[in-house]
Amino acid sequence: MTVQKKKTSLAKRNWQKFIRNRMAVVGMIGLFIIIAACLAAPLLTPYDPTFINPGIRALSPSSEHLLGTDRLGRDIFARILYGGRWSIMIGVVAAMGANLLGAALGCISGYYGGKVDSVLVSIQEMLSIFPGTLINMLCIGFMGKSVRNLLLIFTFTGWPGVMRIVRGRILSLKQEPYVESCRANGIGGTSIMFHHLLPNTLGPIIVNSTMNVAGYILSEAALSYLGLGVPDNVPTWGNIINAAKRLDIVQTLPMLWIAPAAAICLFVLSINFFGDGLRDALDPSSK
Questions:
Q1: At what angle do helices 22-39 and 2-20 cross, to 10 degrees?
Q2: What is the extent of the structural domain holding 162?
Q3: Per-residue pLDDT tens for 188-222?
Q4: Could you say which of 47, 87, 108, 272 would form a disulfide bridge with 78 (CB–CB 3.0 to 4.6 Å)?
């Protein structure tokens, strides 16, 4: 009962620290509004984001088409909402995959040490040397454009940073007396790593995950703008901007690039504010 009260008290104290951070609350509200709008897309617009209607090409914003239409007659507002589903899904799934892989490797590296640690740290440092965008472009060149390939590439190139955080934490935690007690009671190394040590690193992992979501959304948008992201028939925010690369389109259809760029900026700012608030709330040293 006492342990349960302590956990409840800690959660309440963390929540109070979070809501005192006004920018974090603004970020949380912004995230909720954007995600809710994307999920409720069928209720907010009657148009299919992929339907081509040559009869309404390049229309200006109006009451019927809030943000106008593109060169193929597709409603831009519908493409922003449905594109948000794809962009946010890519960011969240890639961040989860990279953080899970990085956390597992960080646990193994920090707990066992020795040659295992040396090999994993060498791989991590080698991947960290090269720019992430360059590695992603090379991988896409070999594997081809698809949502699945992009998620795999982001996952297997994004774990080094998480591994470094978890490894450092595990190196400190494994010296604690309770770890020696676990070993003395015959508890195996795998159980110690994933049941006793890893839960104590969840704070930094959660904060890092929020930052990674924003990073992967920006990476997808950059790759799609270069024509190396997802296939053209997938309406992500990056693909929508990709359709506005020509100068004449930039001048005559400003909403084709302003709207998706604004959506990306608002989402990234919101999740960064939210992540900063989480970091402060989960940090025991902050007041």
A1: 90
A2: 77-282
A3: 777 877 777 888 787 788 888 888 898 899 999 88
A4: 47
The 3-state DSSP class for residue 69 equals strand
How many domains does the structure of the chain reveal? 1
Task: Return the bridge partners of 75, or none.
Answer: 69
Is 58 contained in some domain?
A: no
64-112 pLDDT per residue, tens = 888 888 888 888 999 999 999 999 999 999 999 999 999 989 888 888 8
Q: What's 260's domain CATH number?
A: 1.10.3720.10
E strands within the chain? Answer: none
257 touches 225 (CB < 8 A): no
- Closest by CA to 77, choosing from 228, 259, 269, is 259
205 within domain boundaries: yes
Written as six digits, the tokens of 5 are 């009260």
Query: Are 114 and 174 spatial neighbours (Cβ–Cβ below 8 Å)?
Result: no
Q: Length of the chain, please?
A: 287
Whether residue 213 lies inside any domain: the answer is: yes
Residue 6 covered by a domain = no
Q: What share of the chain is helix, strand, coil (3-state, %, to 5)?
A: 75, 0, 25
229, 239 in Cβ contact below 8 A?
A: yes
